[in-house]
Amino acid sequence: MAPSVTLDNNSADFHSTAATAHSKTTPPRILLLSPPSLSSHPEKLDSIIAAHDRSATDIQMLDRLALALVNLPSSTYDIVLVLLDADNSRTESSNLLTSSVLSTIVRSLKPGGTLTSQDGTLADTESSERSEAIFAGLVIENGNMVKPNYSAADSVPLRIGKQKVDGGAVATTSPAGTGAVSLNLTGKRKNGPAEEAPAPAGVGFVLPGDDLDMDGQDDDELLDEDDLLSDEDMRSTVIQ
Fold first, then answer.
1. Which of 8, 41, 79, 103 is most buried, judging by how many CB atoms fall within 10 Å of its CB?
2. Distance CA 120, CA 145 (A)
3. How far is Cα 122 from Cα 108, in angstroms, rounded to an integer?
4. Rounded to an integer, what distance in angstroms lies between the CA atom of residue 82 and that of residue 125?
5. Which of 75, 65, 76 is nearest to 101 (CA)?
6. Residue 115: pLDDT band by 50, 70, 90 thresholds?
7. Global pTM?
8. Residue 108's CB: how many other CB atoms inside 10 A?
């Protein structure tokens, strides 16, 4: 009779792959911005904090940020969440989101990071805070204000190529469809006077030394003025 084999399912070797993958997943870094009115309602603030991973969540008061009493680390947060006021409005927080505060928030966001509000209306409402956020460098994506990831932009390659053509001249080429820009850096400038192009057929130029005598007569031959008058002209009376 074969011996029985017992498997210990409680062993660490039988942990599910899902649990292992979850343990390796890094939670997003979140910054909670609280309006001053929540400081007088700690129960509301505590309930909001309890809904987030405390090891990856920071909290700052908006009024202290507006007064430049605190500094935010640069390119640190994946999400910056503006909390609602104690009365569940955004009147107080909206007044504190000035251009300087929004510029500080944008610097603290990672490329691709998101600025949003607890009610999700920060990017949906036409307001001065939305305009200031756009001026600070954010763009609207999927109802959120997102910091663009400029490092992921495609670059245009600059390539220099050359090939021989008739006469030994060098011409630059770029592969079709690559968007590459080609420059001719091998061309040499010729020294000396520029070569004159030949005149078109049938077109001539008159120079001072050209002989324009077409019938072979001498240019120095003198004419007698009497030969220019007829007999009738000679007999006519001159009227003064």
1. 79
2. 10
3. 18
4. 14
5. 65
6. very high
7. 0.54
8. 23
